[in-house]
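Human: Respectfully, please carefully check these tokens:
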Amino acid sequence: MKTADAKHDWYIVDAAGQRLGTLAVRIARALSGKHKPTWTPHIDDGDHVVVLNAEKVELGGNKEAQKLYYRHSGYPGGLRTETAGDVREKHPERLIERAVRGMLPTNRMRDVQLMRLKVYTGSAHPHEAQQPRELA
């Protein structure tokens, strides 16, 4: 099997009421294609995943206030810190995108697989024509 022969299916996930880590594991497996019997490490046969209601994903315990996200500008003193609650207020889709990114292997295919992840804050999405199925 070649990468060009791979068939990329479309799946849809409702994040409302689901734990972030558990959801991210299921999404990462679908993006990488590990749920298929034809999975091979060097062939990109993962699927597209549409995530709805990203603002309603659950974080366990007190992570809303305690979990920190870091980024650095590259300049001295350029470290910026945000709590998970701050990220949820401004860009709730980034919680899921970042969790899934951390669960994919760090190789050439990670960015290609992440381009197949579509995260939306509400329940509306523009991918009805692809007829996405529910991700088991």
In short: Residues 20-32 form the longest helix (13 residues).
